[in-house]
Amino acid sequence: MKNVALAVLLVLSIALTACAATTATPTAAPTSAPTLAPTAALTADQVIVLGDIDSQPTDQIERWQLLADYLGANLKEFGISAGTVQVAPDMETMGSWLVAGEVDLTFESIYPAMLQVTRFGSSPLLRQWKGGDAEYASIIFTRADSGVQTLADLRGQRLAFEQPSSTTAFFLPTVALIDAGLQPVALQQPDDSFPADAVGYLFSESDTNTIQWVISGKVVAGATSNQDYRDIPAETRQQLRVLYETPPVPRQLVLTRAGMAPQLRERIADLLIALGDQPEGARIREAFEETARFDALPAAAQTEIQRFQELQARLEP
């Protein structure tokens, strides 16, 4: 009987030990919070999103992320705790993101900026000194031995522009033609006909092509930025002559999406302007398109932008 009792006690002891093991809270293994990627752990409202249009998104994201991180780290009072970069393949995609509130900030030259303002409700915030320049201009040039002396002489002639999204190689020279009383007409092919009192234009797709077309006589004149014209090799530039230079415009604009709270806009502006004084500011600005600084838009530039908006609407297809 004693042996039987001992056996029963042993079985009961084992059973109780097993029950305790299943009900007790484990303490042996250390606990730790799961690790998540910054954007995965945040809602859309907690992330400030910088947007751009580029064919090489990986490179662009890498260059811009420092600025996104800087803004994300300094907007906590607005519930924002991270920054990210989103790159669109084209203006239409970027527009859909802006309208949906998926992108907060964009950085564009005058013409793409005006497209975003008129189509998607974006608002200019600051000027960006991209590449170290506060402003730039468009140059319309012709061959050195051309008989063209003024814009009026371009009536009935063909011009080369780079691409339809370019500020200095399409928009500004087109505005100059309109201001001179000329009628720009888009052509698909060099031999397309157009009214004799108009100016026909073609897109060359590159500054190099524009220069070659002018020198070869395929077109009478071309357009580019004053910066790019300055960079043309001296030997080639000797074959060309500046016909007209437009008034300068801000090199680049910072824009915010429609509906952004005024307090958030103001804080972002303060942070961007303050980059000139921050210890890490030089590194961030250098990575971000070699930006010298951000500053307020001059009053004259704001007036000109309003005029550009009206002209841009006339250029819409």
Could you characterize what this model shows?
The longest helix is centred in the first third of the chain and has 22 residues, at 2-23. Helices cover 41% and strands 20% of the residues. It starts with a helix and ends with a helix. Mean pLDDT is 85; it is low at 1-42. The chain has 317 residues and is an alpha/beta fold. The protein has helices at 2-23, 57-73, 91-100, 110-120, 167-179, 207-216, 226-230, 234-237, 262-274, 281-287, 299-315, and strands at 47-53, 82-88, 105-108, 123-128, 135-136, 138-143, 158-161, 184-186, 199-203, 221-225, 240-245, 249-250, 252-256, 294-295. α3 packs across α4 (110-120). It is built from eleven helices and 14 strands. It has two domains: 44-134 and 250-315, Periplasmic binding protein-like II (D-Maltodextrin-Binding Protein, domain 2); 138-246, D-Maltodextrin-Binding Protein, domain 2. The strands form three sheets. The chain has a six-stranded mixed β-sheet, sandwiched between helices. It has a six-stranded mixed β-sheet with strand order 8-9-7-10-6-11, sandwiched between helices. Strands 5-12 form a two-stranded antiparallel ribbon.
